[in-house]
Specification:
Helix content: 25-40%
CATH class: Alpha Beta
CATH architecture: 3-Layer(aba) Sandwich
Number of helices: 5
Number of domains: 1
Largest sheet: 5 strands, mixed, barrel
């Protein structure tokens, strides 16, 4: 069973619909499942992501891989809004730790993803050389306790060029939905 991790409910909504997932009641996180997939919506932030992933992997031991699908920021020189990337390297901005990913390449360009604790402004994003999110290292560190890195993947869709607020939920859902046909291979294969 694959665990799909999103931070935002707006990221999760089109995936839930696409995979026809059903809600699991009475859990501390928003959890959805079918016969082959489980999805957890963690809420933004490294601690939230790590806690949710550890909870699911502890409670549901039939999980064989973890896939993070979500939005990220990028420099305008790096990518256009809506572009999807396969993450090959994670950088934790707070600890300066590096993590190398083995995300399955599904014909997306590879990128480095920096995980931060606070959103970066548009001005700050101009100095970034890769993508930026707020959950990836929490997901990776928690998942790595249970699974080899070859079974942990990150796929990020550019939603903005730096902002101090979360993009509009409908816009986020549309970005994810537009990329689901391209992400189908990673969702449906081992």
């Amino acid at each position: 069973m694959k665990l799909i991790v999103t931070a935002l409910c707006a990221e999760a909504a089109p995936i839930i619909k696409y995979l026809q997932l059903q809600r699991i009641p009475d859990t501390p996180f928003s959890l959805f499942t079918n016969d082959t997939h489980m999805l957890v919506c963690t809420e933004p932030g490294i601690p939230n992501a790590a806690t949710a992933v550890a909870f699911v992997l502890t409670r549901y031991q039939k999980i064989t891989s973890v896939i993070n699908i979500g939005i990220c920021a990028a420099s305008p020189m790096q990518a256009k809004i809506g572009k999807c990337f396969t993450v090959s390297k994670l950088i934790d901005r707070a600890t300066h730790r590096l993590f190398y990913c083995k995300s399955k390449n599904v014909h997306f360009p590879k990128a480095t993803l920096t995980c931060v604790t606070q959103p970066l402004s548009e001005k700050e994003m101009r100095h970034e050389k890769g993508l930026v999110d707020m959950e990836s290292t929490g997901i990776y560190i928690a998942a790595k306790r249970f699974l080899p890195r070859e079974r942990i993947g990150f796929y990020k869709i550019v939603s903005d060029y730096g902002t101090d607020k979360i993009p509009d939920p409908q816009f986020v859902s549309e970005l994810i939905a537009k990329n689901l046909p391209l992400l189908e291979k990673i969702l449906t294969t081992g």
